[in-house]
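Q: A reviewer asked whether we had any structural model of the full assembly, not just the individual parts. We don't, so I'm hoping you can provide one. Inputs are below.
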Amino acid sequence: NAGVTQTPKFQVLKTGQSMTLQCAQDMNHNSMYWYRQDPGMGLRLIYYSASEGTTDKGEVPNGYNVSRLNKREFSLRLESAAPSQTSVYFCASSDRSGTEGYEQYFGPGTRLTVT
Amino acid sequence: GESVGLHLPTLSVQEGDNSIINCAYSNSASDYFIWYKQESGKGPQFIIDIRSNMDKRQGQRVTVLLNKTVKHLSLQIAATQPGDSAVYFCAETPRSSASKIIFGSGTRLSIRP
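A: Here is a predicted structure for the entire assembly that you could use as a starting point for your response.
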C-alpha cells in the first residue's frame, strides 16, 4: 500500500514551459487535492476533486488546470510556467468530503523551480 | 476574515519534557480542526483532529485542546522525543465546506538532548 505517490520529485522549468504533475492514490479515496507550499508558509489549496468526474477551484487556481483521470489519479498542469509558481506541490487524498471533516493523506511533494 | 495563525514560529524543548504548540483561529464558523506534522522534505502527516462540539481529545502521547470562547487551539505532546522534531501545522475547516481547509503557517519544534 503505497498511499499517495507523486511524480516527479524535482523539476526545473524555464518561464513559459508547460508540465504536468502526476498524483495517484491506492486507498480508494473519493476526494483528492492539490496544494502548494511556499517557504515559511502553510499550504494553500489550488484545486480539489470531491469525487471522480468533478473538479473545483481552491484558493489559488490561477495558472493551473487539473484532470481527475479516474478515481486513483489527479493531475495538475501548468500551461505556461511563471517564476511565481516556484513552490513545493503536494497532492492529498481523503475518504470523506462535505461537511463531516476529513483526514487527508499527503504525498511526498514535487519541488518545482521556474527560472 | 478567515485566518489561522500560530503564536510562536519556533519552539525548543528539552527531550522528555512536554511540548505545547498553540494556534489561534478567527473564523467562528469553523467546525473541524486538525493538527499536522511535517518532517523535513516530506508531506504533512495527520496527527489528531477535533470537532467544535468537543473541547479535548487525546491520542497516543498527544492531546488537542479547543477553547472556542477565545478561538484557541493547542497541541500537547507528552514526553517529547527526538522524532517529534518537525513543523506542526494547525488547520481549520468551516462548517460550510470541507474543501476550504485553511492551514496556519506552522511552528517548528526542535528538541534539545
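A: Points you may want to mention in the reply: Chain A touches chain B at residues 4, 33, 40-45, 48, 50, 56, 58-59, 90, 92, 96-109 (CB under 8 Å). The longest strand of chain A covers residues 87-94.
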